[in-house]
């Protein structure tokens, strides 16, 4: 089975012809995105701590625990993305014959 990645260079929609630019995809590994997300959850947790009494009176202490869970999951996601990036870099350093 042979895979081809032939992309169209133009699209015709109605009476108009649209050209497709030859643009390389971004090489995004997600590490920075997960770092920023985890940091936002941590800041939200710290920002809500002074209001613990009000949150408890209103029955909304779950807001705090949601922030803490978001931060914890962000840490797991950061480690996952970091390992995935390291594995991809390792595969790119190997030649095609070594990958198979």
Would you write up a description of this structure?
It is a single chain. The protein is mainly α. Helices cover 61% and strands 8% of the residues. The chain is built from 4 helices and 2 strands; from the N terminus they run ββαααα. The protein has helices at residues 31-48, 52-58, 62-93, 96-99, and strands spanning 10-13, 16-19. It has a two-stranded antiparallel ribbon. Helix 1 runs antiparallel to helix 3 (62-93). The chain is elongated. The relative contact order is 0.12. The model has no long low-confidence stretch (mean pLDDT 87).
Write the layout of secondary structure elements.
Elements: E1 10-13, E2 16-19, H1 31-48, H2 52-58, H3 62-93, H4 96-99
Helix pairs in contact: 1-3
What is the β-strand count? Answer: 2
**Which structural class matches the secondary elements?**
mainly alpha
Instruction: Give the strand line-up of the largest sheet.
Output: 1-2
- Provide the β-strand percentage band: 5-15%
- Main sheet attributes: strand count, strand direction, barrel closure: 2 strands, antiparallel
Fraction of residues in helices? Answer: 55-70%
End-to-end Cα distance, whole Å, is 16 Å
Oligomer: single chain
